[in-house]
Amino acid sequence: MVLSKTELVASLHNEARILLDLAGTIHRAKLDYRPTPKQRGTFELLKY
Questions:
Q1: What is the distance between the alpha carbons of residues 3 and 11, in angstroms, rounded to a whole number?
Q2: Tens digit of pLDDT for each residue in 6-46?
Q3: Which residues contact 33 (CB under 8 A, 6 or more apart)?
Q4: What's the chain's Rg over C-alpha atoms?
């Protein structure tokens, strides 16, 4: 499947919108949460 430039931009815009919406629901106190010591924390996942 090949996307046109317009479709690609629209898809990326939608992904960014979803990410911003999800990131906005995280409480600041939980940014350091790490499921286990070797897993990435919430803030690291957002940067990734």
A1: 10
A2: 999 999 999 999 999 999 999 999 989 999 999 999 999 88
A3: 41, 42
A4: 15
* Domain assignment of residue 13, given as a range: 5-47
41, 33 contact by CB (below 8 A)? yes
> DSSP letter string over 25-40?
TS-GGGTT--SSTTSP
- pTM listed for this prediction: 0.66
Question: How many domains are there within the chain?
Answer: 1
Q: What are phi and psi of 33, to 5 degrees?
A: -60, 130
Asked if 11 contacts 3 with a C-beta cutoff of 8 angstroms, the reply is yes
